[in-house]
Amino acid sequence: MLLKQIQYFMAVADCRHFTKAAEQLFVSQSALSQQITKLESDLGVKLINRVSHPIALTAAGQDFARYAANVLDALDTLEKKMQAYQPLDNSTLRIGMITGLGRIPLAEILSNFNTVHNEIKLSLVNHLSKELCKLLNEDVLDLAIFAAPYDIDQYNFDILTLEHEPFVAILPENHPLANQDSFSLAEAAHEKFIFPTGENVSYDLFTESCKECGFTPQIASTCNHSHRRIDLVRAGVGLSLISESSLSSYPHRDGIRILPLTAPIYKHIVIARQKKNVYASALESFWQYVQKYAEPGNAL
Predict the structure, then answer these.
(1) Considering the chain, what percentage of its residues have pLDDT values greater than 90?
(2) What confidence category does residue 85 fall into, taking pLDDT thresholds of 50, 70 and 90?
(3) Contact 224, 148 (CB under 8 A)
């Protein structure tokens, strides 16, 4: 019995289809079928009922699948355990991040870490926060820096909070609510809003905040680029909420009114990794290092 044969069988058991399993494994269907036939021959039992559609596991196949899953899990744990003993030389950390990192001194963080650990390569990619959560959850990334989504608790992540950044309200300067000292979201139930798109975690944050104030927002337009949202506000399309750091880089303030929120809403910038029993030494080194930049308490 070969490890490859176990992996092939488990792919068929999951897909209940030889063609789909072969595509998933990037092998030909004939090669897949031959390996499973050889496995059944070596064991002296039938594992798969090929006559039924979709194919089904025999009683022996069901038992085999249960124990084989434990074997593969144990091998995965073994591999991860051995990663902790790998030397740092030539290690690469895959780090994902959003573009809007507020006032976090990312260049300083990476530069200082590289000064101490110049043997570790850093591979950096940019995505929106929801996509970063997905990639981190799928082990495509080792670390991710993002705005925490509304449902962050559903992920099995270790999290360090790097910054709580407040949002402000942006209104046309001639708007009836523009003359107040602060902006109450509860008073804007009948207003039109310009929000980020649904792929952006701020969309969920803003819509949930509106619902907590007792209304579903009327979204006149969606746009992920904060400066474009401000331009749309100036044009009278609607109101918007913008992080303070995004606003600080906007060059034109004429035609708009900027108000703090009566009930603050925050963009929580965090760095996260998957929770595991054992971490590769390069990842653990970076995690220990970056804690000096985390906010006290690390509460979201």
Answers:
(1) 52
(2) low
(3) no
The four Cα atoms 119, 143, 10, 73 give a dihedral, to 10 degrees, of: 80
In this structure, is residue 298 part of a structural domain? no
d(Cα 13, Cα 216) in Å, to the nearest integer? 45
Q: Which of 288, 286, 295, 240 is nearest to 110 (CA)?
A: 286
Q: Give the tens place of pLDDT for each residue, 235-266.
A: 999 999 999 888 877 777 889 999 999 999 99
Q: Is the peptide bond before 54 cis (omega within 30 degrees of 0)?
A: yes
Given 83, 110, 138, the domain boundary residue is: 83
Q: Are residues 133 and 274 in the same domain?
A: yes
**Section 260-280 average pLDDT:** 90
194 burial level (CB within 10 Å; 0-12, 13-18, 19+): buried
Task: Answer whether residue 64 is part of any domain.
Answer: yes
Identify the three-state secondary structure at position 298: coil
pLDDT band at 178 (very low <50, low <70, confident <90, very high): very high
Q: Do 181 and 243 belong to one domain? A: yes
Q: Would 299 be classed as within a structural domain?
A: no
For residue 277, the enclosing domain spans: 92-163+268-293
